[in-house]
Amino acid sequence: MTIRTVLTARPSHQGVIVIVTNLAKSNPKSTVYEGHSHYAMNIAFNPKDANTLASACLDRTVKMWSLGSPHLNFTMDAHDKGIDYVDFYPGPDRPYIVTTGDDKTIKVWDYLSESCVQTMEGHINNPSFAVFHPNLPIIISASEDGTVKFWNSNTYRLANTLSYALERAWCVTLRRDANEVAVGYDEGIVVIKLGRDEPTYSMDSSGKLIYARNQLALSGNIQSLSPDDPLPEGTRIPLSIKELGTTEIFGNALIRGPNGRFVTVVGDGQYIVYTALAWRNKCFGVGLSVAWGGDSNAYAVLENRVKLHVYKNFKERGGVGMKGCESWSIDAIFGGPVLGARGKGFVVFWDWETGEVVRRIDVEAKNIYWSGTGSFVVIASEDSFYVLRFNRDAYNAKVEQGVDITDEGVEEAFDIVAEIPDSVRTAKWVGDCFIYTTASNRINYFVGTESYTISPSDIPLYILGYVPAHNRVYLADKDMNIYAYSLSLSVVEYQTAVLRGDMDAAAEILPSIPKEQLNKVARFLEARDMKELALQISTDPDHRFDLALQLDDLDVATEITRCMPEAEAETKWKALGDRALAVWRFDLAKEAFDKAGDLSSLMLLSLAVGNRDGLRKVGDRAVPKAVDAWHTELRRWNKSKIAASIGHPSEHADLFEEGWHDVLCREVESR
Fold it and tell me: How confident is the model at residue 26 (pLDDT cuts 50, 70, 90)?
């Protein structure tokens, strides 16, 4: 293996740079680069061309070199004073470097044309470094003034400034897989978490996936995976990915239109609508958030917190806007059968056509999820979520009656179905089933009025969607690696029918449920106190035995236990005997206790029913066991001689019969 690394940038007035290559071999090669007239402060390799490097020097120049050749490629006079740092732009689309100088400026250069693209000012002392973030559209700089500044690498505007009062900042390192930055100061180190881990993606109901990596748009098709592959739960799945194109903005959201033809990229206070197949720019504009209507002809754009535009066929709709939106500060909008919005302490829903308020609800929400049918909506807060049923007929009835609709809307438009104390990270509706991931890394689904767990996961996962033909939920991690978990849609439909009380429909669905899912259905029925039906459906012997005992169906329990291996059946026989005794089935209890080897229960049962023969048999079995236990205990306490002096019924039967006949005679005489 060849290792290429910088061993030293010699701090001399001659500005000599030494590069050592082939470090892993016995004959490493050194190349000396000369040309700077002052201290060489920093060297950076080009991530797009590993044979190219740049050096920054206090002689106010940046020089470009080729690895293995001591000859200079070209020189750029970059700053009015000494240069402390140089770094290459990591993406493929820009031949840029960023430099910092003792003139207190940061400059971005096109190294092909050797021209300055932008000069950024803001530090009040010498910037120690400036680096392009490999995943986010930002430039990070820090200075001897003690501040860390974040600049937008597209607009070059200052986005944020941080100060930790640790004196001068000198060095930086980036963790690419976690968006973390460590900055070294005179008096300590600070690790800063940037951005979010959730990837930017969208998948439609047919399994067509589009996601963004930096400003690159990529696509894949989940349907291309074989549904017959025996994949263990949570297996990482290889998916063929192709490049669609690039996005002019760094997107933090991808929103697909209802018919899948258009995809909206939102980020940096702007939005662009692309065609999903050819990835052509359809329209663009200024906007914090975008929401699609019930079809792909209508969408809304939140330009700022009090300004909302509605578009029809990509032209702004005239007339009255959304009622009251100018008086509320809105953080985000959400598409669906009605237009939703959230603000501080409330959510509001508007009618797409009239702009009237359908309902305003006081709740601290972070997201809104509409079902595909438009019948249900989930309002997710920080630590719980609410499932509501949307009643459009109730709203339309009020409108037709001419009722004056206030800013609170129509109360009857929404009915609460359930409140679930779970924190929703990502979610998708499949029919009337709500599938979601939680902050505790669990994959759950909600149906009816209750929530159930599909599987826990070791890492945070984000739901892509559900493919009915595969009976699988597909998810992705922060790096867009794909994972799959089984969820039979027929199971969900069966559960929904049972919760509605439509047992005829449930009976029709039951034959379509895969055999491996029947035990899951049986557990669901047991939780609904439908144990007789659960007993009929379950295929798990342990579960069927427990259900049979709960139902006092001891004949079924006996049949199950007789079919079990002897080693596993002992505890079952004991439980069966106890239950048989409780319902006065003494013959079955005797058989169960006998097969379980439960001599104490057999003795009590024989005494209770006056079974002398049974008592004698218990005695015949109990005495050897008691003597064996006595021997074992004595040997454990190193009293082997005493143990050897105690006779055993199998070896000295006469010792255990002496006086037994006289005792029985005296018992008869006493009667």
Answer: low
